[in-house]
Amino acid sequence: MSANTDGEMELEYGLDDRPPWPKSILLGLQHVAVMIVPATAVAYIVADGIGLAPGDTAYIVQMILLFSGLATVVQAYTVGPVGARLPLVMGTSFTFVGAITTIGADFGLAAVFGAILVSGFAVEGLIGWQFDRVKPFFPPLVTGLVVVIIGLYLIPVGMEYSAGGVGAEDFGALHNIGLAALVLAVAVGLNLFTRGIARLLSILAAIVVGYAAAVALGLVDFSPVGEAAWVAVPSPTRYGFEFEPIAIVTFAFLFLVSAMETVGDMSGVTAAEGRSPSEEEVRGGLFTDGIVSSLGSIFATFPVTTFSQNVGIVSFTGVMSRHVVAVSGVILGVLGLSPKVGAVVTTIPSAVFGGAVLLMVGMVAASGVRLIILHTELDRRNMVIVAVSLGLGLGIATTPEALAGLPSAARTFFGEPVILTALSALVLNTFVPGEQSPLFDDASAQPGLESPTVGPNDD
C-alpha cells in the first residue's frame, strides 16, 4: 500500500469499516492461520519440558485457543474500560515459555497458574493506569534486547525438537532431521519466493507438508484424536493454585516486559492511520492483557498478549477493520471448545514442529535486532549495554549451573534469560547518561559516552 504524506496508509478498510461477511470470514481465517501455529507451539514446548500427558497438552491447547479468541473479541469491541477498540489478535507469547517450564518443573503447574492469577491483572492493570510514568524506562534499546534474547535462548529448543524431542528413542534419527529440514525449506521457500497468501501462510503450509510426510512415513499416532470429544466445556481449577512468592515475582517482571511488547504492537497498528495509540487505547489494551490472562489461569491457560505477526498483516493488506479481527476471535473461540483440535495438534511429530519453531524463534530474534537498529544509535554506551545484557542472558541460558551456589529462589528468578537480560538493560539504560535514559536526556552528560562524530575523511 502506498502512503500519504502525513504517514497515513491508504487503507482498504478503516478501523470501523465492516467488509462483506464472506470477505470478513476469509480475512479472519487468515489471521487465525498466521497465529495458531506459534500460539499452540508455546503449549507444545512447555508440555514437553514439564512432561505433560497428551490429554493435558490437548486441554491446554484448547484453552489457549479459547482465551485467545475471547481476548481478541474484547480488544475489538471492549467491555467497559477493558479493550482497545483496535484490530489486535491475541495469543500466548514466547516471552513466558522459559518461566512456565522452569516453575512448572520445580513447583508444579499449580504454582504457575497461581502466579499468573495474581500478577496478570496486578501488573498490567497498574501499568495501564500509570503508563506515562513507566514508558520512559522501556525505550527501544531495552525492549529490543528483550525480544532478541527471547528468540536466541529458544533456538536450542527448536534444535531439540528437530532431532525428535528430548528423551525420544529416535533422537537425532535421519527421518527426524529430514522432516525438520523439509518444513524449514518449504517455509523459507514460500516466504522468500512467493507473494500474497502463499507468503503469509508459509509456516502453516510448511507444517501441513511436513505433517503429510510424517503420516506417509507412519510416524503419526492418531489414537488421541479418536479418544477426544468433539465438544467440551472448560474445567476451572483443573490444576489448582499455589502461591509461591518467587513464581509471582518472576511472572510479575515478565508481565512488565509483555506490556511493553503490547504497547509496541498497538503503535504498529495505529501507525496505519498515521498516529500513535491514545492513552485510552493503551490503557484498555493493557487491561485486556492482564485481566484475560488472570481469568484464563483459572481454566489452565497461559498468559495472552498481542501477536506481532498479525500487526504485520494489517499493514500488508491495508485491512484495519476491528470487525475482521473480531471474526478471527470468534473462530478461535469455537476451535477452543473442541478437544479434537487440541488432540490433532498433539499428533504432530516433534521434528515437524522443530523446523517451524527454529524459523519462528529466529524471526523473533531478528525482529528484536531490527527494533534496536532502527531506533537506537549504536554508540559506545549502547554497545556496552547490548554486550552486557546479551552476555548475561545467553550466559545463563547456556550455563545455568553457574548459579548453583545461589539460594533456590534466586536461582529461579535470575536463571531466566529474559529476566536477566531485561533487568541488566533496564538498570544500565536508566542510570547511564544517554538519549534513551529516563533520567538523562543528553548523551554528552558524561564525558566519553557521547556518539562519535564521523568527519568527511573518516572511514
Strand order of the largest sheet: 1-2
Q: Which strand-content bin applies to the residues?
A: under 5%
Mean pLDDT: 85
Q: Domain count, please report it.
A: 1
Report, as a whole number of angstroms, the end-to-end distance: 37 Å
Order of helices and strands: HHEHHHHHHHHHHEHHHHHHH
Count, helices: 19
Tell me the quaternary state: single chain
Give the proportion of residues in helices: 55-70%
Low-confidence stretches: 1-5, 443-459
How many beta strands in the DSSP annotation? 2
- Major β-sheet profile: 2 strands, antiparallel
Radius of gyration: 22 Å
The dominant shape is: globular
What would you call the structural class?
mainly alpha
Account of the 3D structure:
It is built from 19 helices and two strands. By secondary structure, it is mainly alpha-helical. It has one domain (21-442). A two-stranded antiparallel sheet has the order 1-2. It starts with 20 loop residues before the first helix and ends in a 28-residue tail after the last helix. The model is unreliable at 1-5 and 443-459 (pLDDT under 50).
